[in-house]
Amino acid sequence: MKTMETKVAKFGGSSLADAGQFQKVRAIVSSDPERRYVVASAPGKRHAGDKKITDMLYACQCLAAEGEPFDALFDEIAGRYTNIAGELGLAVDIRGALEDIRQALRAGCDPDFAASRGEYLSGLLLADYLDYTFVDAAQGIFFDKSGALDAERTQAGLSALLEQYPRAVIPGFYGALPDGRVHTFSRGGSDITGAIVARAVNAILYENWTDVPGCLMADPRVVDQPDIIDEITYRELRELSYMGATVLHEDAIFPVRKAGIDIVIRDTNAPDQPGTRIAHVPSGDARQRVITGIAGRKDFSVISIEKAMMNAELGFGRRVLQALEELHISFEHLPTGIDTMCVICNEYQLDGKREQLLRRIYELTEPDSVEIHAQMALIATVGRGMVHARGTSAKLFDALSKAGVNVRMIDQGSSEINIIVGVNNADFERAVRAIYTAFVE
């Protein structure tokens, strides 16, 4: 008999904000028997002026630690959960679990334990509603003494734990330290939990359900109603994420990428939409555009170094980078010419260090000149389709020229899936819109 294949479905805070959203989640899970493991986030905002449960729990812990009353705020939290349980007719003893947390706050629990209870309570409710087994994440996700994820122990322990249960709900965001204390991931950590669970059960797919229809080709604050990306490879996603595109928590990508598991970003409120697939290997089924997406960031500085015959001087580049290393300055890009070398850094890296850096570069390299130009934005145009499309660079630079944008820097990697241009901060939005229009509209 063939073993049923497994999908892991993670639902974000907006997907579990109230009883109505829980109903949508159950409809999604029950529509596909392969959705055997579900990762739950804490309830998010129900409307614009609402509060996230995690923020409220942090606030309760702070008040308790300072000896201030927190019961009124905690009653708001309790009301959210009891309302969901009541509207859905759930049998789980959510009031008892809430009271245990109230007592833990009074006893001086730490911030990690307090914050993790949002996902814990959400998981209890969802497990009861789906008739799945509740599995506490602290039983199978482990951190070392320093607070770093113990990936090897987690992989072995969580795989063995979940093998006992054909269907389970696991709360996101937290695990356990070696002494048993609860420890949380950084914010957005439920994405990481979902990826870890997907790898532990050798899932065929990791579904990340949220309140957006997928990954967008550009920032909607810059480009009006950008298209959704049908499919993006991990490699392309890495390039876009590095330049500021917010899709998934970066640590959530690694476990599934290592295991060769695809991710799909889907909208809980529009479950019939296909969303965006993040693929280990391109499927060939999605639309193949020349570019996949555009992303960028402002506030970079260019350190421009000129020296005649620089290319023939052994160790010149190493000495430039030595000056940065001595001042604990990291760099982003290194575009070079025969007699020029540019180092691109985030402006905050140079705060209070500009004069010292210039002096040290002069001491180590004896250049003809060194200048620092601030207020530059970097824009990455990314797409695996660029490799086979002739004239991509010409089309991009023609679009920028027609938009009146002066290009201050060009950097294209050997992979040919990414072209990075540097423009003035003031030209950033205009440049992104010009590139998008040239390739998409």
**Poorly predicted runs of 5 or more residues:** none
- Could you describe the largest sheet, including whether it forms a barrel? 8 strands, mixed
Q: Separation of termini? A: 50 Å
Q: Helix amount, in percent?
A: 25-40%
Count of DSSP-assigned helices: 13
Structural class: alpha/beta
How would you sum up the global shape? globular
Give the H and E element order.
Answer: EHEHHHHEHEEEHEEHHEEEHEHEHEEH
Strand content: 15-25%
Give average pLDDT, whole number.
93
Let me know the number of strands: 15
Descriptive overview:
The chain is α/β, with parallel strands linked by helices and 441 residues long. The chain contains 13 helices and 15 strands. It has helices spanning 19-30, 53-65, 71-88, 94-106, 111-130, 151-162, 189-200, 234-242, 250-259, 316-326, 354-365, 392-402, 428-439; strands at 7-11, 35-40, 133-134, 168-171, 174-176, 182-184, 205-210, 231-233, 262-267, 276-279, 293-306, 340-346, 369-382, 407-412, 418-424. An 8-stranded mixed beta sheet has the order 3-4-2-1-7-9-10-8, sandwiched between helices. The chain is globular. 43% of the residues are buried. The model has no long low-confidence stretch (mean pLDDT 93).
